[in-house]
Write a structure and sequence with these properties.
This protein is mainly β and about 650 residues long. The chain is built from 6 helices and 37 strands. A hairpin with a 4-residue loop joins strand 23 (about 400-410) and strand 24 (about 415-425). The chain is globular and about 70 Å long.
């Protein structure tokens, strides 16, 4: 069978109980009205229902309904999204079973510093943007390399920030969380202010937040942390100048400082307990021009992103080498309506620089990459549209690569929509993966990984089809997809396999892999001001060279939410997440369920109080199996206040 239509018994229990929730908006459905506009799937703005992609939207209202410290928290519960461990008690975002490095994270369409593949267990892009700055999050599942180039092989997560309005506005969020056992306390302070400096000409938007979480410790060894502690401060400011009604110029500067720390132990004699910490500094400076002319739209941007990580270890333990990543990007596009067509042309130039003593003898490496794309949005009829396009990328190590995409949207009726398409993308190995001089001790000293200059670029082809029926009070939708991958980059044992401290691994290519699956979702407005939503994802994965199942990809997952809003000033929700069994290198991890409750009461038009409980049943994954690379916190109580002015 292509799909396993007999998911675990616990899935059925969750679905029939009806007491559960999404981590955010359901698909493209649940968050807002049909008129919701999105910008990520094409080169311009369009209605969500017309978007040529499988897309979800998380709104600001969703983010305010529960505690969210970073992007991983925000995306939990979305269809096709797996927020899983990547080691070092950190998390990554996988779309439809694709590697976390294949998820491209953008802020207002701009890339962040590409940490994946350059820094082991790097998740620093997840906390780049203050939550208070986010207006909505658009999640596109499936390759978007035809627009965004390499790194978008699995999909795109685009954070759209709040912009200055004609009147001054401000908001603030204060959250605190406390576990039953006293470990893992967390806090969050965030603020936003925006408005006109010169009416109709110059606007200012400023965001800032400070977040923190204490470490939690292993029950089996209280001297070791099962979750690292964090302290983070982030800020951003944007000046927006509108010299006339057709033009807008934005100047943005953002910066942040992040500290991670945990107590751990050496894996080889002599056994030593020590403190491991990372200090991360990041910044981005961006200048953009947007034009909405009588003949079409234009956009030109130039920006520079930088990230620096310094590792510190106590008890005379040797730290990892300092790393500095700098990316410079120049991009732009022009879109012109031509009858029933809208044609877009664009491209970008990127230069990535890396300073890391481990990458080679000089401690420096760089790569230049650029590309151009063409896209045609063709309105065949009022109900039927086709989007076709291709991107042509040039990489100094791999010459030219072509990423075509063809997608169609058909509105059979005002309620019934069919979508489907095919796409291709590529991802070049990182500078460290390609360097023959690169070596790094990984997995707490269990093995050493070496670079491989003979790596081939990863190539992916995706096929998908979906159906969406929205009857207003209720809606249903389903999608099937298949990702065919060539030359998937993974570490492979080359010598002394299984011998701790001596094992040698090389980056290598998995010749062929396949990930196929199904996504299904539904929502319904119920009597007495209740609303029930749910989504289900099934993955069927295979290493086509060996026939083995790909690791760290749950076969089944279910998310659901029961909302209750009996009054305008009060709402509550009960959410549930089910994660099915998954294969890892050491065996098979069991399935598990997590339950969450949140309630919000508006005390005044400007003040809302929020309370809740996370992990109600106090699931301790680390106690179930040591194979989990991220230990969920235990039961956690939280209290928060949202302010608006």
């Amino acid at each position: 069978m292509i799909f396993n239509w007999q998911p675990a018994r616990r899935i059925a229990l969750l679905a029939t109980s009806g007491m559960a929730a999404f981590g955010g908006a359901a698909w493209a459905d649940d968050a807002t009205t049909v008129a919701q506009l999105v910008v990520t799937p094409t080169a311009g703005e369009q209605k969500l229902v017309d978007a040529p992609a499988t897309i979800s939207v998380i709104t600001r209202q969703d983010l305010e309904a529960r505690p969210v410290q970073d992007l991983a928290d925000a995306l939990r519960g979305q269809p096709g999204v797996n927020v899983g461990g990547i080691g070092m008690t950190r998390r990554g975002i996988s779309l439809r079973g694709m590697p976390v490095e294949h998820t491209l994270v953008l802020v207002d369409g701009r890339r962040l510093s590409a940490v994946g593949g350059l820094v082991a267990h790097g998740d620093y892009d997840l906390a780049w943007t203050p939550v208070e700055a986010v207006e909505r999050i658009e999640i596109v599942r499936g390759p978007m390399s035809s627009l965004y180039g390499a790194d978008a092989l699995g999909g795109v997560v685009n954070l759209i920030t709040r912009s200055a309005t004609d009147a001054w506005r401000a908001s603030a969020t204060i959250n605190g969380s406390s576990p039953e056992g006293g470990e893992g306390k967390a806090y969050q302070f965030g603020g936003y202010v925006g408005g006109p400096l010169v009416k109709d000409k110059l606007g200012l938007s400023v965001y800032a937040d400070a977040t923190g979480r204490d470490p939690t410790f292993m029950a089996s060894d209280p001297r070791q942390a099962e979750l690292e502690g964090r302290r983070s401060v982030n800020g951003s400011a944007t000046l927006s100048w509108t010299p006339d009604t057709a033009q807008r110029i934005d100047l943005t500067y953002s910066a942040g400082h992040d500290v991670r720390y945990r107590d751990t132990v050496t894996t080889a004699a002599p056994i030593t307990y020590y403190r491991f910490s990372d200090d991360i500094d990041r910044e981005q400076l961006a200048l953009s021009h947007t034009g909405k002319w009588s003949w079409g739209d234009t956009r030109v941007r130039a920006y520079r992103s930088a990230l620096e990580r310094v590792n510190i270890r106590t008890k005379k333990q040797a730290p990892s080498s300092p790393v500095r990543i700098v990316e410079r990007v120049l991009d732009g596009h022009v879109s012109v309506p031509l009858g029933g067509h809208r044609v877009s042309l664009g491209g970008d130039l990127r230069r990535q620089s890396l300073r890391n003593p481990e990458v080679n003898a000089s401690g420096r490496a760089s790569a230049d990459q650029g590309g151009a794309f063409i896209q045609d949005e063709w309105s065949v009829t009022e109900r039927w549209s086709i989007v076709g396009g291709a991107r042509f990328d040039h990489h100094e190590a791999y010459d030219w690569q072509t990423s075509p995409r063809l997608y169609t949207v058909f509105h059979a009726t005002s309620k019934l929509t069919f979508k489907g398409g095919v796409g291709r993308g590529f991802k070049a190995p990182s500078l460290t993966q390609l360097s023959p001089e690169y070596d790094v001790v990984a997995a707490g000293g269990r093995f050493t990984v070496y670079g491989n200059p003979n790596l081939k670029p990863e190539i992916g082809a995706t096929y998908e089809a979906s159906i969406d029926y929205d009857a207003g009070p209720w809606s249903v939708r389903a999608a099937v997809f298949q990702n065919d991958l060539k030359n998937l980059v993974e570490t492979q044992c080359a010598a002394f396999c299984g011998i701790r401290g001596r094992e040698v691994r090389l980056y290598g290519n998995v010749s062929r892999a396949r990930i196929k699956g199904v996504e299904a979702g539904a929502s319904a407005q119920l009597p007495a001001a209740f609303k029930l939503s749910a989504n289900y994802t099934h993955l069927d994965t295979e290493n086509r060279a060996t026939g083995a199942e790909l690791t760290e990809r749950p076969r089944n997952s279910l998310n659901a939410r029961l909302e209750w809003a009996p009054r305008e000033d009060f709402s509550a929700q009960l959410r549930a997440e089910y994660v099915g069994r998954q294969r890892v290198s050491t065996g098979v991890l069991p399935d598990y369920s997590l339950w969450f409750f949140e309630a919000q009461k508006r005390l005044t038009p400007n003040v809302a109080l929020r309370v809740g409980v996370e992990n109600i049943t106090d699931q301790r994954l680390a106690e179930k199996s040591s194979g989990y690379t991220y230990a969920e916190p235990g039961r956690l109580y939280h209290l928060g206040v949202n302010l608006s002015f």
